[in-house]
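User: I'm curious whether this sequence folds into something compact or stays loose and floppy. Could you predict its structure so I can see for myself?
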Amino acid sequence: FPSLVANARGRGLMIAFDTEIPRRKALLAKCFELGLLVLPCGAGSVRFRPPLTLTPAEADQGLDILRRSVQSLQE
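Assistant: Here's the prediction. I'll summarize afterward.
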């Protein structure tokens, strides 16, 4: 996702990445629409803060939602 996602950082599953502000709002909305809650952070970042009880299947589902959300913004 090089045109939308940059500067990924964090520890474990508590991660964030930078994106452009207009696209960030659209990305947050699309993720929410598909069932993934991500948070705005700072001037142009997106943050993930999953629960400690996250299962591998839930992590895969969240990554799939993120992938589909990013792809929908690149079309």
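Summary: The longest strand covers residues 6-11. Strands lie at 6-11, 14-18, 39-41, 45-47.
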